[in-house]
């Protein structure tokens, strides 16, 4: 396993919800990442974010790790969920909120 894969696996396994994104939740660097942050904030769940723009190994490695070509990418309890379009579809259908409840994801601290 590559060093990038180990680092990705480590952060995914240690956090209930992880968003690999461009930028940070306070300063998203693309519209898709901004939408993903807004969705997670609306779900009121605690999540870890990883700025792929800060590390090219992670930026390329996450695409191979998930076998998904685009960023952002959402992981819940170690499982890949999808990108911002899938997040939006699931959120609008209430499925993302159900997934968070089923997986007993911690609520965001106020």
Automatic annotation (TrEMBL):
Keywords: 2Fe-2S, Iron, Iron-sulfur, Metal-binding, Redox-active center. [2Fe-2S] cluster binds at residue 30. Residues 17-81 form the Glutaredoxin domain. InterPro entries: Glutaredoxin (IPR002109), GRX_PICOT-like (IPR033658), Monothiol_GRX (IPR014434), Monothiol_GRX-rel (IPR004480), Thioredoxin-like_sf (IPR036249). GO terms for molecular function: 2 iron, 2 sulfur cluster binding; disulfide oxidoreductase activity; metal ion binding. Pfam families: Glutaredoxin (PF00462). PROSITE patterns: GLUTAREDOXIN_2. SUPFAM superfamilies: Thioredoxin-like (SSF52833). PANTHER family: GLUTAREDOXIN FAMILY MEMBER, MONOTHIOL GLUTAREDOXIN-S14, CHLOROPLASTIC. This is Glutaredoxin. It comes from Parapontixanthobacter aurantiacus.
């Amino acid at each position: 396993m590559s060093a990038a894969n180990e680092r990705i696996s480590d952060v995914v396994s240690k956090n209930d919800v992880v968003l690999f994104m461009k930028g940070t939740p306070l300063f998203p660097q693309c519209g898709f990442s901004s939408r993903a942050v807004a969705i997670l904030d609306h779900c009121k769940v605690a999540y870890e974010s990883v700025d792929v723009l800060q590390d090219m190994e992670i930026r390329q490695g996450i695409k191979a790790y998930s076998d998904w070509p685009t960023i952002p990418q959402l992981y819940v309890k170690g499982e890949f969920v999808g990108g911002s379009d899938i997040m939006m579809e699931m959120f609008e259908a209430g499925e993302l909120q159900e997934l968070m409840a089923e997986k007993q994801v911690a609520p965001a601290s106020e």
